[in-house]
Design goal:
binds adenosine-5'-triphosphate, nucleotide-binding, P-loop_NTPase, 6-stranded mixed sheet, 4-stranded antiparallel sheet, 233 residues, alpha/beta, ABC_transporter-like_CS
Amino acid sequence: MSRLEVKNLTQTFNQKNTALRVLDGLNFSVDDGQFVALLGPSGCGKSTLFNIVSGLLVPDTGEIYLNDERIYGNTGDFAYMQQKDLLLPWRTVLRNVLIGLSGFENSYPMQLSGGMRQRVALVRTLLFRKEILLLDEPFGALDAMTRTVMQSILLDIWSENRQTVLLITHDVEEALLLADKIYVLTARPATLKAEVPVPLPRPRNITDTSLIRLKKELLTLLQVEMSKVFDAG
Ligand SMILES: Nc1ncnc2c1ncn2[C@@H]1O[C@H](COP(=O)(O)OP(=O)(O)OP(=O)(O)O)[C@@H](O)[C@H]1O
């Protein structure tokens, strides 16, 4: 398993002939086998960060290090589950995940419910057995019950394999239930605003007093950043 470092990432896009600065000197690191959640206002640059880390996008400036070695492009060390699940519609579930989900193995993605599709996509991502998992809002579109089930599947697999995980989420409770550490990003352009450790055993209960305290702390941090988005817009 691997230690990941993101150093001084900067990214600007051209939108309608104006320069949109999305990342502005972003620095952080994730320890070997650690589960880190990233929270930040909508549009702050979280998916852009994952696109860079996974090698899909070359940043304007900055570096990515894996186990102290600088990496370039797609090194094959990352399993990346993008916001949209990216299942190939013409492949059956069996061929999408290589194992059957009992009773559904001959179905196509369009024949599955949203929850089942996300489950297939997650299983497929985990099956790649890569060193580092990049999960971009994997459960964002799911109902509360399915989301809870998926979270526990993810935790079970992570406890067994101890892959290094980066999870983007908009859900403060999800971050608190799952992560060892939470990074809060600023409004665009994203920089690191805060690092909040969650040193509690799992499974966690969101009604636990220390989680309630952390939730308040995180919501206050996020509200400051979100108000910047509204003030600007
Ligand atoms: N290839 C691109 N060309 C131009 N602009 C882009 C490109 N990719 C992203 N952007 C812009 O960069 C900004 C950040 O996008 P990004 O998807 O990284 O944010 P995000 O934090 O993941 O958002 P959300 O939380 O809503 O998913 C957005 O304003 C988006 O429109």
